[in-house]
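To the wet lab folks,

You asked to see what we're planning to order before we commit. Fair enough. Below is the target structure as C-alpha cells, and below that is the sequence we designed to fit it. If anything looks off to you, flag it before the synthesis order goes out.
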C-alpha cells in the first residue's frame, strides 16, 4: 500500500512528456515522431526502467538519505523525468520555431541549452550528495542546492503545461517555459528572504467565550479575534477585537513568537536560523515556541546543529536539573520530520543542551507578569496512529484543563484542530503546512494547494471556543529528495499578542 502512491507518481511523471509528444505528433506531423523522437524514446525508456529498478533494489540502506525506499524511488523517478521532459520540450520548441523565430539567433539557443545543462547537473549532484549527508558550505548551497531546488520547482509547476504544448501557436510556445521559471524565481526569493525585525507582523488574538457576541462582525485592520460559537465547524478568520469597556474583560496580552518548520539544511542554514532567533528576541516576547520539523536529511549528521542554531535564544532558555530543563521560556513540540532516522535522538539531545523545554504529551505552568499560563505540547501522530483519539486522551485525561488558567497548545499538525474536545477553550499553535507551500497568498487571496484539501493552511481559524493559528513557517519542505520552493506563499516572522479572558 505504501508503494502505490510512489508508483502512481512515477507513472505520471514518466508518461506526461510521452503523452505530450504523441499529441504533438498527431497535431503537427507524424514524421516528427519517427525521425526525431523515436530514437530518444528507444534509448530513454530502457534507461528509465533500469534507473527505477536499481534505485528500488539497491538504495534502500539507511545511509542513503536516511529515508524510505519510497522516497528514494520517487527521487530517481523525478530526476529522470526532469531530463526526459526538458529534452523533449526543447526538441518540440526547436522544431516549432527553427524556421521562423530563431533561425538567425543560435546564440540564444545555445545559451538556453547551457542553462538547462547546468540546472540538470545541479539536480544530479544534489541527489548524489545525499549519499553522504552533511551540511554543506555556503558556496555549495548557492551554486548547487538553490539552483537544484529552483529547477525542481520549475518542473513541478510545468507538469500540467506540457499537455498544452502541442496546441499552442508559435508566439505562445515559450510560455510553458517562461511561466514556471518566473514563478520559481519569485519562489526562490520568498523562500530565502527573512525580514528585518522592524518589519515583523503584529497579530492580536482574543481568546474567550465573550467574543461570541461579536461573531457576526467584519474584521477591521490587522487584529484577529476568536469566534467561540457553539458551532464546531472549523472556520477561517475571526470577528473584530473588543471595543471600549469590553477590553477590560481581557488579561494583558501574552507576547508569543512562533518558529516552525525551519528544516535546517540546503535552504535554512544554521546562520540564517540564528538571525531569525536574534530578531525574535528583539520583539521582547514572554514565550518563544518551536512547533516542529527542525531538520532535513543533511542536518542529521551534525548533532550540534540545532543547539548552535538556537544559541541566540540563550537568555530565555533554562538549565538542566537532573536531566530535565527547568525555568525555560522556550518550548518545543515534535513534528513529523523529527521522527525520521536518527533525528529524534539528536533533536532531543540538542534541545536539552540548548535549554529548550521539549513537551511530549505533557504541560508546564509558567507565570507571566503575575498570571499563570499553561503550555501543553503534544506528540506528532501519523494517521495510522489514531491522532484523533490521541489528542482527545491527552487534553482530557493526561493534561486536563486547570480552572482559571488559560492554556496554549503546541501541536505541529493543524489537521487535528477539528478533533479538540468540544469543551476546550485554548489557543492552538501549529505549522506543518508551510502556509500551503504553493498558493496565491502573495496576491491577497487565501488559497493554496493545502487549502484545496480542506486543511487549515495559514493564519487564524476558529472552532467553538478554541482558536488555531497556523504559522507559515520559516523553511521549506523536501519532496522526493529535493527541496520544493515556496511559490506565492512567503515565509512568516510575526509576534502574537494573545488576550485571554479574565
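Sequence we intend to order:
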Amino acid at each position: 500500500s505504501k508503494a502505490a502512491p510512489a508508483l502512481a507518481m512515477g507513472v505520471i511523471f514518466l508518461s506526461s512528456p510521452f503523452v505530450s509528444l504523441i499529441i504533438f505528433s498527431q497535431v503537427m506531423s507524424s514524421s516528427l515522431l519517427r525521425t526525431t523522437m523515436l530514437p530518444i524514446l528507444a534509448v530513454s525508456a530502457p534507461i528509465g526502467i533500469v534507473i527505477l529498478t536499481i534505485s528500488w533494489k539497491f538504495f534502500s540502506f539507511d545511509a542513503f538519505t536516511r529515508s524510505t525506499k519510497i522516497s528514494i524511488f520517487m527521487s530517481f523517478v523525478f530526476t529522470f523525468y526532469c531530463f526526459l521532459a526538458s529534452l523533449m520540450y526543447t526538441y518540440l520548441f526547436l522544431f516549432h520555431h527553427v524556421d521562423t523565430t530563431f533561425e538567425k539567433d543560435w546564440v540564444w539557443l545555445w545559451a538556453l541549452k547551457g542553462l538547462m545543462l547546468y540546472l540538470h547537473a545541479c539536480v544530479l549532484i544534489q541527489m548524489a550528495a545525499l549519499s553522504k549527508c552533511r551540511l554543506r558550505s555556503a558556496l555549495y548551497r548557492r551554486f548547487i542546492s538553490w539552483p537544484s531546488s529552483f529547477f525542481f520547482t520549475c518542473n513541478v509547476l510545468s507538469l500540467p503545461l506540457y499537455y498544452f504544448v502541442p496546441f499552442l501557436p508559435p508566439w505562445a510556445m515559450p510560455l510553458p517555459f517562461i511561466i514556471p521559471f518566473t514563478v520559481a524565481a519569485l519562489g526562490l526569493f520568498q523562500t530565502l528572504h527573512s525580514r528585518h525585525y522592524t518589519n515583523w507582523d503584529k497579530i492580536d488574538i482574543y481568546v474567550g467565550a465573550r467574543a461570541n457576541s461579536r461573531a457576526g462582525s467584519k474584521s477591521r485592520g490587522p487584529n484577529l479575534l476568536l469566534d467561540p460559537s457553539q458551532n464546531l465547524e472549523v472556520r477561517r478568520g475571526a470577528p473584530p477585537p473588543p471595543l471600549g469597556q469590553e477590553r477590560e474583560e481581557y488579561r494583558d496580552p501574552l507576547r508569543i513568537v512562533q518558529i516552525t518548520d525551519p528544516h535546517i539544511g540546503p535552504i535554512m542554514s544554521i546562520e540564517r536560523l540564528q538571525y531569525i532567533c536574534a530578531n525574535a528576541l528583539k520583539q521582547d516576547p514572554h514565550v518563544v515556541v518551536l512547533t516542529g520539523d527542525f531538520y532535513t536529511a543533511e542536518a542529521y549528521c551534525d548533532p550540534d546543529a540545532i543547539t548552535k542554531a538556537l544559541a541566540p535564544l540563550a537568555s530565555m532558555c533554562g538549565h538542566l536539573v537532573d536531566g530535565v530543563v527547568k525555568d525555560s521560556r522556550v518550548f518545543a513540540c515534535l513534528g513529523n520530520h523529527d521522527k525520521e532516522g536518527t533525528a529524534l535522538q539528536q533533536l532531543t539531545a540538542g534541545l536539552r543542551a540548548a535549554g529548550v523545554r521539549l513537551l511530549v504529551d505533557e504541560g508546564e505552568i509558567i507565570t507571566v507578569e503575575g498570571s499563570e499560563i499553561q503550555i501543553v505540547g503534544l506528540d506528532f501522530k501519523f494517521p495510522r496512529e489514531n491522532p484523533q483519539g490521541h489528542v482527545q486522551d491527552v487534553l482530557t485525561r493526561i493534561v486536563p484543563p486547570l480552572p482559571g488558567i488559560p492554556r496554549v497548545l503546541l501541536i505541529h499538525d493543524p489537521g487535528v484542530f477539528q478533533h479538540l474536545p468540544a469543551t476546550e477553550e485554548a489557543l492552538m499553535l501549529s505549522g506543518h503546512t508551510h502556509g500551503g507551500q504553493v498558493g496565491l497568498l502573495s496576491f491577497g487571496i487565501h488559497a493554496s494547494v493545502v487549502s484545496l484539501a480542506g486543511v487549515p493552511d495559514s493564519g487564524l481559524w476558529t472552532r467553538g471556543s478554541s482558536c488555531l493559528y497556523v504559522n507559515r513557517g520559516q523553511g521549506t519542505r523536501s519532496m522526493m529528495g529535493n527541496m520544493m520552493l515556496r511559490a506565492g506563499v512567503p515565509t512568516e516572522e510575526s509576534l502574537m499578542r494573545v488576550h485571554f479572558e479574565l
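Structural context that might help your review: Residues 58-70, 96-103, 215-229 have pLDDT under 50 and may be disordered. The CA atoms of residues 414 and 430 lie 5 Å apart.

Thanks,
Computational group
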